[in-house]
Write a structure and sequence with these properties.
With 385 residues, the protein is an alpha/beta fold. The chain is 23% helix and 28% strand.
Length: 385
Amino acid sequence: MNMIMGKRLDYCGICGSNVKELLTFPEFPFAGRFTKKVSKQPKYIADLSLGICNKCNHVQLITIVEPDFLYTEGYTYRTSKNFLADSNQEVFLELIKKLYTEKSPTVLDIGCNDLSLLSVMSDYAGYRIGVDPIQSDFIDRKNKIEVHGKFFEETNWSDFQSKPNLIISRHNIEHIIDTSKFFDILWNKAEESTLLVFEFPDAEAMINNLRYDQIFHQHIHYFTRDSFTQLINLHGFEVVASKYNTKMWGGSWIIAFRKGNETLSQNILNDKLIVNNYEQFKSKNVIIDDHLIKYSDVYGYGAGQMTPVFAYHLPSKLSSIKLIIDDDHEKDGKYFDYINAKIVHSSQIDLSSSTIFITAVDAATTIINNIAARKIILPNILLTI
């Protein structure tokens, strides 16, 4: 087992003030890492801690792991493989098309992942640019698309074949360590007319719904609508429109903004709420675990990237799960680095005579609607159907 030593981020990513530690998660697993064989202990772990700014109440990680480790060969998340992320792109595009009425914009997608969002914009955009470290550099002039395989902060804008006038980013800003540097670059490069549209998980919903299993190494910052607004205000941008997506991360904000001035917002989260709700979250997980171990021959369903994080918070660490079923053929026969249960494709299991415990919490509704198991145990609301 290799303990990855993180560095401290003791200053607020929004206002730069001191951050107070609230919660600690020792020896925390990395999300979405798979192995080809079962191991007695995870290959990589790292301590994790969550804090809150003493001045503006922004919530963020205090111990962080360097991006060069997180987003290299072990990073397996792909948007097109995530049903919720892929199917909810239309919600994001609806707001863009409503606000940006110019014909054939040049679109820059920051954190373009596997290009799934840029792909569906081929008929709308005149030219498409993607930036993401998991990609390789290429230019396809025939299809009017180029991709730069690096972090956004390392990208040379002079390399772009066309100047962006529409800048988009879905579920990327929460991964950025130095948000001030990030938005300084955007302000210096954006024109007055440039429209920016970002989507990020809603931390207010996460805390209120006791979804502390959504805290993990890759998400550095936990924004509310108000804290994100405060961040962009401090860097010379103002909100022009917003939309709430109820189907991503239990609730996500889509914020459209341009250069301008706006009154700063105050974040509504506070340390007492976060700590008290976390205690409720821990109590709920004890009940879930007690409920789960009553059944024998239970299969997990859903080998999502967050399944190891969910397992971490259960006293049993999902040790009673026989197998984990998933619909992705690429995961068949693999294991999570943190869970000993083998992943098998759904075609190999007779679900009609099986007891299923849903291990991909955010996909619970989709799973229920698509399988016919003898018994389904729902972890988030403790119902057995």
